[in-house]
Specification:
With about 210 residues, the protein is mostly helical. It has one domain. Helix content is about 40%, strand content about 5%. It has 10 helices and 4 strands. The chain has a two-stranded antiparallel ribbon with strand order 1-4. Strand 2 and strand 3 form a beta hairpin. The longest helix is centred in the N-terminal third of the chain and has 21 residues. The protein starts with a helix and ends in a 13-residue tail after the last helix. The mean pLDDT is about 90. The structure holds iron/sulfur cluster. The site of iron/sulfur cluster has 9 residues, from loops.
Length: about 210
């Protein structure tokens, strides 16, 4: 379904209201906790274990997003953003491979490369099975922080790829600035490359073959 411009415009009010309600609902203590993440992942138990440090960030994002119910369009079975470009780092790709046993490619580090979040593609993520993520517990940070404040997923669909309002999606820099600061610390010491998830795992559906779904 393609919405007329007037309806897209009307929805902006809904998006702003939802974003505001969400930010008020996240407890202050949880918001403050984010400021210490970059320090936390440099403690001894995380300093030499990037996967464990990554887990701290994944857990934090999930605890914040648990407060999004009622204000986000995202829900199980909705997979519009799984057809977008999904930025993935080698560390995250290796974690998925280790947890699922699927083969992973190495993507070289290209410091000049810029990822383009929310760019729609015509091929779904290789881990999308029956419109559900088959590696939900190990999905990358890009997926965990890709959140729509709209009333439903209509504007997330491919047909609307050119007129999706920026305010529809969560502002990662504002909402998860501390997470990405800590993430950069981990990436810097890990040194792996980055790319779209299909560069690491191919475009064909990947069979994980177990119960990794959330
Ligand atoms: S990893 Fe999972 S959530 Fe992320 S794009 Fe792929 S199927 Fe969707």
């Amino acid at each position: 379904m393609v919405l007329p411009a007037s309806e897209v415009s009307r929805r902006k009010t809904i998006m702003l209201r939802n974003a505001d309600a969400f930010s008020k609902r996240v407890p202050l203590a949880l918001q403050k906790e984010q400021r210490g993440l970059a320090r936390e992942i440099q403690r001894r138990q995380y300093r030499d274990n990037d996967v464990k440090a990554l887990g701290v960030l994944y857990d934090y994002v999930d605890r914040v997003m648990a407060h999004g119910k009622g204000n986000v369009a995202c829900k199980r079975g909705c997979s519009a953003c799984c057809k977008a470009e999904i930025a993935l780092w080698q560390l995250e790709a290796d974690l998925i491979a280790a947890k699922t046993g699927v083969a992973v490619r190495s993507v070289p580090l290209d410091p000049g490369r810029k990822m383009t979040p929310y760019t729609m593609t015509t091929s779904p993520c290789p881990f999308l099975v029956n419109e559900t993520c088959s590696i939900y517990a190990y999905r990358p940070l890009a997926c965990r922080t890709m959140v729509s404040f709209d009333a439903d997923s209509t504007l997330c669909q491919f047909d609307h790829r050119f007129d999706t309002p920026a305010l529809m999606m969560i502002d990662r820099a504002t909402t998860f600035g501390g997470v990405y600061e800590a993430f950069n610390v981990i990436l810097h010491r890990n040194g792996g490359g980055a790319g779209d998830i299909r560069e690491f795992f191919g475009e064909s559906p990947v069979k994980v073959g177990d119960n990794h779904q959330a």
